[in-house]
Amino acid sequence: MINNLLKLLLIIVIILMPLQVYGENPKVVKAWLGVYRYNGTYYDPLGNTFDGSSSFEGSDYIYTVINYQLSNGDIIRQVIKLNDNLGTTDPAATTVLYWNDKNWVVHNLPNQTVINKYESEIPVGSQIKISMADNYAGTAYGNGIWIVHISENGINFIEASQYGCYYHNVSFVFQNLNTNSIWEVQMPYKNKNTIASRVFYSGIIPFNGSNATIYNIHGDTPYAGKILQFAPPTELFKSSGGSASKSKEKTVEMDYQAEEAEKTIEDTKSTISQIKSKYNIKEAESLLSQAEEAFNKGDYSKAKELALNAKDTAIKIKEKAQTVDGIIKDAKSTISQIKSKYNIKEAESLLSQAEEAFNKGDYSKAKKTALEAKSLALDIDQDSIPNEEDFAPYINNYYIYSIIIAIILILAVNYYTSRKRKKEYDERKMKEFRSKVEKWKKEGYDVSELEEMLK
Ligand SMILES: [Ca+2]
Ligand SMILES: [Ca+2]
User: Fold this and answer.
1) Chain centroid, CA 284 distance in Å
2) Is the pTM above the cut of 0.90?
3) Dihedrals phi, psi of 196, to nearest 5 degrees
4) pLDDT per residue over 132-141, tens digit each?
């Protein structure tokens, strides 16, 4: 008995071994979320449109779509499908309240009464809170709640719930956009149409070919306490091993990106060819050729970014050139008005330098030189007094003022010096006189009158 069991185990191990070695499972490498207000066409966040149907009665029919890219290049599109007392809506009226990444950075979405379109790439490891309305009323979302966690192995959710007035047949529908294969994973049936009726459950839906499992089911459902298993069709998740993946190098996502990049490059090309006939936009042309290079290397996102940058640069240069053109025209007209009255040869020479720079495409130099030319024409000596008001239009008034101040200073110094000299002379003379009086006094002369004078 034990021997047989060991043999069985051995056989199982042998059967599974090659799978482990060669059958590497595809992983979820990227995901995108799209939430749309229905406008007659169904979209997914990768830019595809698809067929659907609606029995939703309210005016606020919002639907949610998730795209997953697998490591083998396959793209899976997920929607939620609802069948209730009022009919079928596929994709069901579903909106997203928020999503958060694995670091719990939360991205809130506008609510269902105002949201029109929301598209975002969602990092693997994020979770998305989806809220469903049954087919009954406008904005009354909340008849179904799932917090869908995206991992590299697929998706899972804990304690999802459905409630409200109607019975629900809800399923998660996965479509492989490369093979068109469809996998519908049934959620537990909500079987009562009373407001108090509820059903709760959890689920694991792997993207590697294994069964989906819906478990922890409780509430008003015939499935309470059971575990539901749903196997995917064989076409849905192909292994990434072998040559199959080589043939899938060009995935839907890559095609989409390539198409986007190509469109952007074409658009930029036409903008550039229009502008370059008039203006020098070498910088933009160089960015465009870098974009084309990136495109040829298959780096479509870089190609698109560079092409957008090229277009933006071309437009900015055109706008700048137009402004500079205006500045040159203005300088020209100013100069032609002034040159009959004043000699403004220097300004005229600067203006022709500006025009030359403009024709060469050096718009910064052209602008600077044209502004200088105009300023020089209006105020030849650059003393900030316009020619018309300037008593000496060719001589900088500051020189004149400086010279006047210098002359005044010299005169003042001379005056001071001569006064000082005179005073010193007087004092010397007085001293000599005093000593003479002193001498006369000693010699016996009466100097009392002179002494009185000297007091
Ligand atoms: Ca002046
Ligand atoms: Ca002057």
Assistant:
1) 20
2) no
3) -80, -10
4) 999 887 788 8
